[in-house]
Write a structure and sequence with these properties.
The protein has about 70 residues and is an all-alpha fold. The protein is about 45% helix and about 0% strand.
Length: about 70
């Protein structure tokens, strides 16, 4: 997968999400899992403002995905 252009782009997106989570003192695995659980709940939404609550610096993220 990563030996194609699309695979490389996908990998870059994932790495970016993980590194941004680390930089914001989040547990990367738990943060990505939270994203994968929450985003599908909004697939039919026309309003994308819910994404603000999912950003790694959002105060609305669950406490359990933050590092102690």
């Amino acid at each position: 997968m990563i030996d194609t252009i699309h695979g490389a782009k996908s990998s870059a997106i994932i790495y970016s999400i993980v590194e941004t989570a680390k930089a914001n003192n989040l547990k990367p695995f738990d943060y990505v899992q939270h994203l994968l659980e929450e985003i599908p709940k909004h697939m039919n939404d026309k309003d994308y403002s819910f994404l603000e609550d999912l950003l790694p610096w959002s105060e609305k993220l669950p406490a359990e995905i933050r590092k102690a």
